[in-house]
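ingest -> validate -> predict -> emit
validate: passed (alphabet ok, no gaps, 369 aa)
predict: started
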Amino acid sequence: MKIICTKSNLAKGVNIVSKAVPSKTTMPILECILIDATTDIIKLTANDMELGIETIIEGDIIQKGVIAIDAKIFSEIVRKLPDNEITIESDSNLQTMITCEKAKFSISAKSGEDFSYLPYIEKAESITLSQFTLKELIRQTIFSIADNDSNKLMTGELFEIDENILKVVSLDGHRISIRKTELTKNYQSRKVVVPGKTLMEVSKILSGEADSTVCLSFTDNHVVFEFDNTVVVSRLIEGEYFRIDQMLSSDYETKVKINKKELLSCIDRATLLVKEGDKKPIIINIMDEVMELRIKSQLGSMNEEIMISKEGKDLLIGFNPKFLIDALRVIEDEEVTIYLMNAKAPCFIRDEKESYVYLILPVNFNAGV
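emit:
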């Protein structure tokens, strides 16, 4: 095999597929990136058996062939080569020369025949949306997936399609994040749970441009993302997702409208007094026309008042400040509406159309704080 391509094209391709190289595996071939130049295109592939990514790069094929190169050393070599044309050439013994200007590397490769190609997915109906929309949906929900495997379903996000509405849901036992977006046409109803790791990696590769599209296809076991000469195939998480509708109440005793930026800045300031790993609640005292926020830790205490518009009862309630910050950071609205029931019931931050809903459970606190 012999191919020639620019460093920028090769580096971009390697960077994309590297996201599917496993950090630990008992199969050394999976630690490789496959370079496939057996047809008229140069295709790079990586696969950890849960997540697989392939991308096509521009370049010239001088001699057709396929090899697998250790991903770690290959990506480091490519990254540190000069910004010029790179030639990759392998002989019958799989000894591979990587040349750029005066730099020459000779490394051993593995046979491409042993590599686990991406599974062939027979795609049924696909949904199409802008890369910007998908990237935003992930950004606005991914922070509330669980980061441990005690409940596998919590480590993924629910993608639910109902006619022309796509709803994305994540939860970790303390909070729920929901985002909805309108699709361009009606689709068959479907519910799947996509691993959070897959969504994080897809989000990093997406350009995020509004006029670029991404195509999503689902089977019983897999999800496929296709965009910009790249294909990402991931296993879905099996099982029935939690019935979140039972947790979403429209009842409230207290309704607060508040400037989002002011509230976010205030909570952000309060966390200056909380050491990492310290679980200090922020206490919120809701009164007529004013919300008082206070926090107390070993480092000191802080309190601040923000003007609000309130309907209903006064309320004293405590929250994990990080959960409030995570939700407020991804809301674009200038003013947010918070619905509360009592000091032990979750609060809801949502807009009128319910294009977003953030549910956050309160925490117990000592009223004397």
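The chain has three domains: 2-111, 126-243, 248-360.
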